[in-house]
Specification:
This protein is of the alpha/beta class. It has one domain. The chain is about 50% helix and about 20% strand. The protein contains four helices and three strands, in the order αβαβαβα. The protein has a three-stranded parallel β-sheet with strand order 2-1-3. It is globular.
Length: about 80
């Protein structure tokens, strides 16, 4: 995980988001200072704003779109 973060030029705190809880990612990142992992279903604004970088898998992005995209569409329809 340290090599991956170095290759991505992560030099400060980062939040790593996966689609579902992934044991290998959690174990790989848990001892690295400033790095937090979470599944997309538990992602929240406080976590995002508490880190300088956000790293998401493609599947996590799709999951977040499903979870939050529907709410955003419903909110915009209500204001019309």
């Amino acid at each position: 995980m340290a090599k991956v973060l170095e290759a991505l030029e992560v030099e400060s705190s980062a939040l790593i988001v996966t689609d579902k809880p992934e044991e290998n990612v959690v174990k790989s990142a848990r001892n690295i200072s400033g790095i937090t992992t979470t599944p997309a279903g538990l992602l929240n604004v406080v976590d995002i704003l508490s880190h300088r970088m956000l790293l998401m898998t493609v599947a996590a992005v799709r999951n977040a779109e499903e979870l939050w995209g529907k709410q955003a569409k419903e909110s915009s329809n209500e204001s019309v």
